[in-house]
């Protein structure tokens, strides 16, 4: 039995194919050639076959090329949030007196799949001032450590909502 | 001053910015009161710093010899992907291994939840034992 | 060729006998054995006339020609005497042993050893090659060892065997060194060639050392003072062995050696004095100590020691002949050598006889303790008669061969006391005096043998069986020997002409042909000094024997009670105890101590050779130094220096990780991308391994050690660091050669790769890589076995099928 | 309370593929760029290490059902045999050759016997590292 | 000028690492130390990027990526060790 | 550029030897690990690294740094890894059997 | 093409791998191992004869000419040692077939033994100093595994020390290599020799030579032998025999190679030091050999003594002494194998290892007893056993070189050897029999055969010395004339490159 395919996935074959393409692409990039060459891509594809064959039981990620735009948007939102919160954390660190009140709070997300929850957690964790500590066993509750819970909890929750929306645009 | 030179300067400035941010997070590492807060400084500010630097490097090579370093790009992606996970895992380990929050902390819902869960388990265990006891 | 066969015949039989013993598992095996010396004796006798006429028999069989070591055998007059003794006494002893040894003994072993010894002894006296002689020499020690410990379950036997082995092998090793020195002077191992070169050797620097070492071999083997202590303990051997090895033959190998090397070393003051003095002291000390013995065999052992000393001193006297100018004197001195050989033959007869009688007594009564013996004359008349013959001969009384020998000894001692070429002061006047005193004691113990055993009151309550006369077979050998004892007295010149005389040219080659070299022996030669001395010996001997009870207590006074045995035991015990003390002191089993030794040695040896020889020339020149490099140096130093002091192993591991990653950075600075890559990965995997293993190990506690230990550790550590730095700085400034690496820069054309490092790893030095892979594999599987294969619980650490 | 490894696992799954691809690339590019059998093998095995840490032995073993001891032995043997091959052909032990071949898909490619050797190296590295880690981890 | 800026960046990174080493030694908790190591890892990675630019060589790009990968693996391993005392389990107990 | 590297090597050796002389097995093993760091650094320093480009022919032009020490160090690194792995496992197995990780007690371990 | 040179290393390596895969069938393992050992011996003989006929052989791996590639060099010295290794390890393994527990056999005992042999042979043959380090490591890693294999408390406790000290020794090796490469910039031994000679050695190179001396002294157990008695006395008999016969010899060989080929210009420092160390080793070994009651420890200290003795020859530094050492090396490989196997058999048969707990064994095991007796005589250098001729030549060399203290130490030590083994023989084999026939464990014939063969070998080597004499003479000649070796290696390459 395969432990990785927990959520019913739409066609493992298609997924594998996508992954294989991904590897071929990666390959081509890694070779650092001046121009795009079919042969290089094909070679990468063959390398990919080996890797995918070798690791096929691990396979389980999904790849949604068609939602590239949504991804770009997500990245943009993320970067905005990143700069904003970085600035605030730097301020907190460099302020002559530490006034922060850290703490842990729980946030229940509307997201469902593992990928979605993971993405949300990553984004939230990447933005300074907050970090996901635990995901509950049902995968819905996030325990979040905030650097300054008094002043930024509200802002954090707004940020979370933004992320959730952007993620759902990508995944659904 | 041509475009490439500008890009080179931009790259260098990105790097210095990265270095400064890195230093700031180091200061955070120095000043902040507990592991949880320090982790914010360390894993994120410094991640950002590194990303800036790598970006600088990427630009520099592009400007220098029109070289698109996929490894650098991949590195950026990799750091993006793994830095938050690392931060999450460390801090989770800290909490699970019982490292205390600093005194200034406001509240700890996680600890409360754990406490509740522990009580519940204890109750279940006692009940089970009682059952077994009556069986035997 | 017959000689070779003769030497190897006993060995061949020694190999056959144990097998034969399975077929003939009783004393009849002895007859097969006895045939060996008999045949050989007959063979030797058959060539006796040829040897007596001055010819020699030689044969050489190549053994290790590359080393100049060949089985080259040589029979001349000197070796002939010994050959006859070895085979003749050998035959009698085997004959005797057939009746002496119990059927229950492992006769196969016994006779194999005896034959082994016989062959070895023949080898010693027939070898012309020093190395072959040495080989047989050690073989006699070994067979003696085995024979002494024939009853190896007895503690005393083992003790005696070990002692004799240690002392004789010690001497043998010294002798070997002496032989090697001779070789380095002469370039040959051949004794005859060495003798031919002898005159040229005297000026060699190693001459004296070689001489002393050769004497060491002889003295240990012939039980000369102070090495005589092994012989009494060797009496644990079965009596036939004592009769054969420890009185008649093996102990005379030293005599043989001294006689054989007299042409090489004789005529030197050192040789003369050492041999004579050691001999005379041995003579005195042996006879003096023989008197106090209660065990008949011990008494005989001391008497043997004493008489070996006598023979030795005679050889010493004789050696003076080689430096004395032409004239009657030197012939007179040379006659001492003749006397030595003559006495030696006589000694073999009467001492062999006495041992056999003692064996009979032991056999019949189960004891040899004279305090429990007495009055056996009536019960064992034949034995008694034989004992009287042997003892009186030994005491130097007529009409026995011992008388002749003793007379000649006195004569030689008197002769040497005046007008010897090395006379300094009046020291040589001591020789006749000491000789006389020793003879008195000799007389006393001879009387003890006869009186305390066969005369006086019987003490049946002290022995548990009723003695009878020995079986006839057992008496045959002693009777034959007794016939010789008497026969030689009456026909001494027969022996002189055919047996002893032909040996003289071998001992005194420069004198050969001189008239009077072989003296005419007469029992009666008028009233002269020797005769008066003998009369004195008898008188004093009788008086002292009668008053023995009264003066016996002097044996309890120093220096008479001094026992060199105690020295031996102290030496052995002290060495054992000392070695245990020393070894356990530094072999602590503590790894830290071992590391301390290693690093201290490193500091001393490498440090010494760097700083004390002027090698240290530090080069502090720097091209350019970047601030960030200094920063990393500081980071690493900081991380490293903290490592010993951190409280948790995790921290230390993390710091080690910091070091590892920082090294990767240095590799970058050194333009080594492959290294940086490998270093990073390996560092991570290593860290993971540390973490994996920490699970099974307790966290570390603060290092508890005395401040002194910590200071020592610190000093050693700093020393090692400084030394490595000093070396490196010096090497940095050493700019003589270019590296061979330039070659590898053609990697692309040579090996088809742009990555030079990889080309080296995969091609130029692929062999290293291949083996390194093997190393890795072994380590991996090793870890697996280490974990999976655990010792059986409670199985101890001694395992196996 | 027990947490959920979802973040770690989801990311690791992606990361492992990146590492594996990178490992293969390192292995093959060693001839001209930094890399080679050793490093490639090490990176590949570190991917497996990550899986072991994030998941557990049995799960990974279901995914990669290999006896790593045999992998290591095979690799080391391959390395030695690659040297023996040239000896059989009458050349000095461990002679490597290389040449350029026109292959259907890969185009003109440089093929060198050293690659077989390097493959042996890589397999040994993977096999050994995994054997060590698994041995220790199974020792409870 | 560009080079000078880069050198400055390098020195800044070095300082960060120094502080992180201090944190490793000082602790006080184990996660603190792991965080510091992680930080050192990424800072080294950044340093290598800067050095590569300084030396104008692409030879070290692999190292950057590798360092990223391994500092991640290391951090995960340390965290798991701190959390469970064991980093590779025979069977995840959940 | 090597002088400070050489001094660093000396520092590493000092620390390593100090650790080596400890009673605790893990300290001792860490000592061997630091020793190998030191010697790798030493090898590359002694190999005369100063001046020269990365030894990749396609990447840069000569003169290159000496590539041979690099290859040697690679070999050395792998070997020291193998040894360290074995030593570590040996250490814990020894602890398992003897019940002590104190090297100064190991001398008393004789046959059961 | 001299590919035969690599076979003594590659054949055991490949055998090791094949045996690894044959894990399930011990029978098949034994069959393959036997065939391999036989062919190994045949190869070694062939190699020796080839060296005789064609002079010093060399094999450039990958065809890379020296000094750039790695190469194996076969001279008589190396070939003789390779042959002895093959024969002795073969006999030890035949003993192991009968003596090794099944669970050890299942845990790759044989493969590890073959890897050990491969490392040993490689060390003898290599002509490259760094490759020597690598060959050492192959040998060491295999020895680490063998010394710990299935071990209990004592075995592991000693193994930790053994491994740790060898790790440090390997570190010293690398340090020395770093300095040497930093000075002469090359790794090929012949080339190093040329360059060192060109520079006239000088104080710095002499100091570096001292570090090499430390390295090899640690491996050989010259003065720095503290690790040896403990670790050689804990493993099972075949392993101890492999160690006693082979491991220290590699260090001794390396010392001879390096200090005759490369660092021979400043004898006052290097060879004077070696002489002093040898004498101290003889003293320490001699004291140790009589200080303990455990027969395995006694045997181990005898290894120490032999090391001291062999290095006398190097300290004396003349051809005769070299001959002595070569003879002694060969002899000691044979006799140490026999000694450790005999001692190990005694331990297994009685379940005891102290001399005061054994007695009268010769009645129970006469053949073993006599073999032990022969071993004792041979070790003490008593003719006609194999130890004799080495002793003669070493002594001769010492006399000719005027090294009388060395001679004294060497010859006195054989008395201690004799004494230490006499203690075993007299206490354990002689004395009252305490094992009744009923409780007597049988001594397997399969064990006795290899033991007897080793005994026969020590006798044959003594009696048939002439058979190997030309080879030994040639070996010593090459040692005394480094230019012969250099010519053979660098003949085609202009020196001073
Ligand atoms: Na390598
Ligand atoms: Na005993």
Automatic annotation (TrEMBL), chain B:
Keyword Membrane: yes
Pfam families: PhaG_MnhG_YufB
Topology within the bilayer: Multi-pass membrane protein
Chain ranges passing through the membrane: 6-30, 42-62, 68-91
UniProt entry tagged with the keyword Transferase: no
Keywords: Antiport, Membrane, Transmembrane, Transmembrane helix, Transport
Domain of life (superkingdom): Bacteria
Entry's localization field: Membrane
Family: Belongs to the CPA3 antiporters (TC 2.A.63) subunit G family.
Protein name: Multicomponent Na+:H+ antiporter subunit G
Species: Bhargavaea ullalensis
From TrEMBL, chain D:
PANTHER family: NA(+)/H(+) ANTIPORTER SUBUNIT B, NA(+)_H(+) ANTIPORTER SUBUNIT B
Subcellular locations according to the entry: Cell membrane
Family assignment from sequence similarity: Belongs to the CPA3 antiporters (TC 2.A.63) subunit B family.
TM segment ranges: 6-28, 35-55, 71-90
Organism name: Bhargavaea ullalensis
Keywords: Cell membrane, Membrane, Transmembrane, Transmembrane helix
Pfam families per record: MnhB
The keyword Membrane belongs to this UniProt entry's keyword annotation: yes
Membrane topology: Multi-pass membrane protein
Protein name: Multicomponent Na+:H+ antiporter subunit B
Domain Na+/H+ antiporter MnhB subunit-related protein: 7-129
Source species, domain of life: Bacteria
UniProtKB/TrEMBL annotation, chain E:
Molecular-function GO terms, alphabetical: sodium:proton antiporter activity
Organism: Edaphobacillus lindanitolerans
InterPro entries: MrpF/PhaF-like (IPR007208)
Family: Belongs to the CPA3 antiporters (TC 2.A.63) subunit F family.
Organism superkingdom: Bacteria
UniProt xrefs under Pfam families: MrpF_PhaF (PF04066)
Cell membrane is among the record's keywords: yes
TM region positions: 6-25, 37-57, 63-82
Membrane topology term: Multi-pass membrane protein
Protein name in UniProt: Multisubunit sodium/proton antiporter, MrpF subunit
Cell compartments where the protein resides: Cell membrane
GO cellular component, one term: plasma membrane
PANTHER family: NA(+)/H(+) ANTIPORTER SUBUNIT F1, NA(+)_H(+) ANTIPORTER SUBUNIT F
Keywords of this entry: Antiport, Cell membrane, Ion transport, Membrane, Transmembrane, Transmembrane helix, Transport
Automatic annotation (TrEMBL), chain G:
Protein name (record): Multicomponent Na+:H+ antiporter subunit D
Membrane topology: Multi-pass membrane protein
Main location: membrane
Compartments it resides in: Cell membrane; Membrane
Residues annotated as transmembrane: 6-22, 31-49, 69-95, 107-124, 130-150, 162-184, 204-228, 240-263, 269-292, 299-317, 329-349, 361-382, 402-422, 448-469
The keyword Transport is annotated on this UniProt entry: yes
Annotated Pfam families: Proton_antipo_M
Domain NADH:quinone oxidoreductase/Mrp antiporter transmembrane: 127-416
Keywords of the record: Antiport, Cell membrane, Membrane, Transmembrane, Transmembrane helix, Transport
Protein family per UniProt: Belongs to the CPA3 antiporters (TC 2.A.63) subunit D family.
